Amino acid sequence: MSETFSLSRRRFLQAGAALGGTMLLPGIMSSAWAAGSDKPEQQTVKVGFIPLTDCAPLAIASLKGFDKKYGITLVPSKEASWAAVRDKLVNGELDAAHILYGLLYGLELGVAGKPQAMANLMTLNRNGQGITLSADLQEQGVTDLAALKKHVGNSAPGSYTFAHTFPTGTHAMWLYYWLASGGIHPFNDVRTVVVPPPQMVMNMRIGNMVGFCVGEPWNARAINDRIGFTAATSQDIWPEHPEKVLGTRREWVEQYPNTSRALVAALLDAARWIDASDDNKRETARVLAQRGWLNTKEQYLTGRMLGAYDNGLGRRWQDEHPIRFFDQGEVSFPWLSDGMWFLTQFRRWGLLKSDPDYLAVAQRINRIDVWKEAAQAVGGITAPTQTLRSSTLIDGSVWTGADPAGYARSFAIQRLGA
């Protein structure tokens, strides 16, 4: 972000910081935009979402007026599948979307469709996904990854089907990583299919797969319906992993920079409100349960929103890495290393035939500049001084963003030659 701001931008930022998380009155609203040059170019912003717990910042920003605070009106658009989100985002039917991190990166590189110049404006959440195995497997004594490995090894390749939500999406990467960490090759030993999140439970009920990876509340719903159990959470695989992002087309950001900043600021403020207290999280669960959002029972949402887990096999615990939306603003920062990690997995599994310029791709997509301006507008958020972070995953591998090509080749189970 440039160190030099126009006078009008300074006024906008100072006004936003001073007001913090409060609702703006009409008079205050007009003063925040008094100079005019920083006024959002679009007053109405259509944002797509899939009915998952992690669309929460969009719901809260829209329903509690955080959008109005920054001079825009959010129009949430409930979509049926990630493919629909992709298509509507690319053709301009949506201005932005709650979208899978890996889907956005796949779009940029032409892995998930025709190459499109994309932008990641912020990370919407960390953690909060899960891998469910069927009650049928449980009855056969499969309750963990080691037992699953033995079971798969005693069967013909492809005998067991697992589902994820999109070929380059986060859930595909979590599923592949988890299986491989237990010695199961996700392409050679089992079969994988794509199923939209709201259809996961139904498809497991009728026997179309023995396992799936998806966001909440569908893992909790499988337990409630007695058709499956949680074999692993996504935070078991990578504690504090990035999940959904606020994605859009790069041309939209360039055409509407003030609107982009306002949109990020609104969702940042909403994320801060959600994470401020357990009461706010409970209220968020009540909102999300409504028909216009997830159309499900509040009980499926509240427990895991609060980090209270029950795996369906009798184990209950308070998770150290529950779904997070804010965490002093760090959750939302578009870390370059986060985006690069997905590229290493695309390479590992043969979705990319050669090594990309990992850092350059991440710098192109992750709009740290927009995030910093929005964070300053919201106030009370300190930007990280680095753009790479270190993480240790379930198999003991350490990801720092250094030597991504070597990291992609470091795994015993891979598909680089595909």
TrEMBL record:
Keywords recorded for this protein, A-Z: Cell inner membrane, Cell membrane, Membrane, Signal, Transport
Subcellular location: Endomembrane system
SUPFAM superfamilies xref list: Periplasmic binding protein-like II
Any coiled-coil regions, as ranges: none
Keyword Signal: yes
Organism: Kluyvera georgiana ATCC 51603
A GO CC annotation given for this chain: endomembrane system
Name listed for the protein in its UniProt record: Substrate-binding component of an ABC superfamily nitrate transporter
Major location (coarse): membrane
InterPro entries for the chain: NrtA/CpmA_ABC-bd_dom, TAT_signal, TAT_signal_bac_arc
Family classification: Belongs to the CmpA/NrtA family.
CDD domains cross-referenced by the UniProt entry: PBP2_NrtA_CpmA_like
Residues of the signal peptide: 1-34
